[in-house]
Structures
1.
Amino acid sequence: MIEMVQMRRHGAGSAGPSSGKFVVSALPPGESAVQSLSPSIKVVIEGEEIHEIDGRPYVVRPGQMLLVDRGPPSRATVRRNQQTLGLCIYLPSSGNDGFDPNLVLPRAILQSTDSNSLGRLIADYAARLHRGRGDAQLPATMMAQVSASLGDVLSSAGRSIGALDVKKASTRQEIYHRLEVARALLHGNIDRVVPLDELARSAGLSGFHLTRYFAAAYGAPPARYHRTLRLERAAQRLRVTNLAITEIALDAGYAELSAFTHAFRREYGCAPTAIERPRKRPC
């Protein structure tokens, strides 16, 4: 049976059952030991947690998820004057050999929750659990969905790492980690243009190398990748809301309607006015 555990204080974590476990946490400042007998996924919906894995710190903030392969215990820290709300999912350990070794992945991968359907699913579930809206019958269904989706997420990460033109595997993994930091910044700022120098600083790379590696890993340079994200959200809002097109353009980081229309037409082959809007209800 899948366990659903509430965690309100720090301590030494226990190993999850072979069927898997959900840990819903609301933690004050302090440190916890984290067992890693099976792969796990951690999201934070409020505050931030620092997970030290194999000697390296990973700072997990809202909008991010940390994928961790099985291995030695790690340490989770909540800084002074902070409190975090989060969810950790321990996958079933029976028959689970961890991450596919053929993918040459690092043991821990930090990603934006908005970068794939698995991240969005877990972030939404974590928020509902903390609002007291988690269906008691849902954990088994959620665990099945997470287990089924994780392989695709890891395969995608493996392809991105493999696409980097760097000989040493550990260097490719380090560059990928920095690229994911930059990608999370783009996903977290859909309402504005993120300058290349700001993005490069966040990743600790030069603008030239960031652009080159980003395009290799994700199929488009940062500016085009981010423009597509902003236009996708704008197109969705056009389809499901009655907001004025000028307001949707501003929310997508376009100060001028003409610039938004030009970018939209180039992306979708039609003007924003061609999108069918929802009908307004009669008074």
Note: The first strand starts at residue 3 and ends at 7.
2.
Amino acid sequence: MSLSRLVSGVFALSVCLVSSYALAAPIHIVAAENFYADVAKQVGGDHVEVSSIISNPDVNPHLFEVSPKVARSISDAKIAIYSGIGYDDWMAKLLAGHDKLVKIDVASMTGHEDGDNPHIWYDPHTMLLLSLAIKQELSQLDPAHKAAYQHNWQAFVKSMHPIWKRIDTLRQKYAGTEVTATEPVFGYMFAELGFKVRNLGFQMAVMNDTDPSASQIKALHNDLTEHKVAFLLYNNQVTDPMTDQLKALAEKHKVAIVGATETMPKGTHYQNWINQELTGVQNVLEK
């Protein structure tokens, strides 16, 4: 064999190997929040590489600022997932110039509009619809692994059954329970549980970074001091002097406090996180 033919053969082989690697390379998905990234990884499995921009439960997501590193993280992504309806406007701005990227606006996908409570991931329906959307997009981008995505999606749906069962059990036992919160982070889950949520005006003001009215503050204080609520749900991740004072007031008057976060704790999955939050609610109500 001549040297030229040998070189040509090696080159052709290398091209085939590189092409095979390119086809087998995992699909990069970037999610604004880590709970969406977790669902994407559960559905995509080994065929995706998933990164989340906000993953630290100690960070206030409302004060998040985009860095050049964050902007670079979406440069090679094929799918981007964000919450929408004002919760992560910075992500929508980042994605504006990426026309070839598959963009999943979770709020729009699930029929939510501006002005709705943006903490939509606390509604399990949202995550089921998101998992379906992810499966469909991955199947189109990577039809060779369509069966794997279908299998993973079915496994995710099945893993949510215990959460629905637990919600049903709590709702049957405690529907109508009156509760309050420093912010409406748990609002959709409260609705699933059938709880009556007081002081919504106060909560929305805190969420929107505006000052609650004097009457709203007084009403919440009265609910705590007069034990009109079963517990105070306290957003551990988004705090200020006013919410800290409310927590102290609840403690002073021996009103139970249930903590919650907006971002999923590290080292867990969405299903485990929601179960932990429901355990906190259940433990307080069963005392």
Note: The chain has two domains: 8-159, 162-285.
3.
Amino acid sequence: MTPDLPREVVALVNGGPPGTAILTSRALHYGDGVFRTLLRHEGRWLDFDRHYVKLVHDCRALELDPPHVGQLEAELEALGGGRAQPVVGKIILARAGGGRGYTPTTRQCDRILLRYPAPRFPASHWSEGVNAIRSTVMLAAQPRLAGVKHLNRLENVLAARGWPSGVQEALMCDAAGNLVCGTRSNLFWVEPGRLCTPKLAHCGVSGLMRARVLELARSLGLPVDSVEAPVERLRAAREAFITNSLIGLWPLRRFDDHDFGAPGTVSLRLQQGLAHPALLDSP
């Protein structure tokens, strides 16, 4: 444990305790890195292999050399926890080297790993759905970073503020008014004969649970389309849901003033197929 951290948080930097070198990290100064968040349940990091594939993809986008899978897995195991109660792990791969200036001088990564207590939510978030609003914060277009879970998340920070009571997510659009994602989730909705999700060609994060849902839907024979669509398409949908690697799948019960009557049949079918553990606030 690190004395300067909250007691319930455990951290490792390059396999050891954090030191003052983190103060000059390019992650801190420029957001020069990528990250993934994963759940440890019953002593196992869920979907670690899939998370690693995503990390490798995102590292390539920033011209970073990812660590070996075995090294990263061993350091995650060294964080411990997650047997009696689930915990959350965060993997940050930040470009190594300090000093001033934007220009990178290496492709090597520093490995920053953290362990947190898992969040807890009411069972109704899974069984009855959640409420979402449209954020007034627009996502900027940068095709070279589209889909990448990089460390620059200020748009999400801005969009996560000032929600009305009873709202669990804010959905974000690009400058053209097309749906992209939630502040912490990917979005899906059901139209006649198909499952739709935003295309993510210009911005947004391609989450691991999004990939799992797309794979599962195709295996169940559900046609899937990645689309560029305005908010009106969502309001006209039969049902909708959001996903991420901690919550799994939450049906959308309401979006702004539109009710979906959650959960829908497709949402339930996919939720059951994912079999993701629910982080209930009352076990």
Note: The chain has two domains: 10-117, 124-274.
4.
Amino acid sequence: MTKKILIPTDFSKNAWNAITFATSLFKNQNCVFYLMNSYSINEFDIGDIKASEFGVTSIDKANNLSKQELKKTLETLKSLNPDVKHTFKTISEYGAPIDVMKSTISKKDLELVIMGTKGRNNHSGTFFGSNTVTAMEEIRNCPVLGVPMDVKLGTLNEIVFPTNYEDSYKKRELAQLVQIAIKHESEICVLYVDPQKELSANQKANMEVLSECLEGSKFSFHHLSSTNRSLAVRSFVESRESKLVAMVNRKHGFFEKIFTTPMVKDLGMFDKVPLLVMHNLRN
């Protein structure tokens, strides 16, 4: 079955890195990659060309420049990526990035978004840009994989999946996680962080359901005794040199809260490790 993947780009170095990461992640697998650029004359900025320099045909010029940059990106990508199982298509559309992403996912029935964690206009001191955080929050029918600057795929030895076992999962919620793990023969390390190791009856039941959801992949269960979950996850990931963190966002506003408060200091691993965000499909 052919995978259909959306890769938003603003033509920044981070966006390009996300593209090459995506093609490596699904090497030798039938995929259609949709390279998407959204533009607006208020925020438009490609190279040294500013919206203020445009005349009455601002939108047309912005559209033409967007298409030109997509064409250049596509030509470069095809010259560097000889994978015959990969097909690339481009989308240039006027509008806010999140709106264009949502409409494209719906119209094309896409199953995964892969994007850089920061764009051209984000501050260097932040781990996640505003577009990435918004995508992880608002795109709830499709997982989003955020790829930090300069991170290369390498060997995907293991994927860390933090959980508190308070909620049950469904196979379709974790489908992309399992598929990636099987393809790369990665171990999914289910990580429970809590001062108490003993699980309640409900947590044990949810743990069993999770095991069923992960069937087909290699997985293991781990416990760390700590009251600081974010630091515990970071320590676990760094000590084992894990290559990917996956989690389910069950609460609206969760990522906005984390990535806009001092808590981000505890999550510094995400400037080195990609983050796969899935959603509770019942919300």
Note: The longest helix spans residues 58-80.
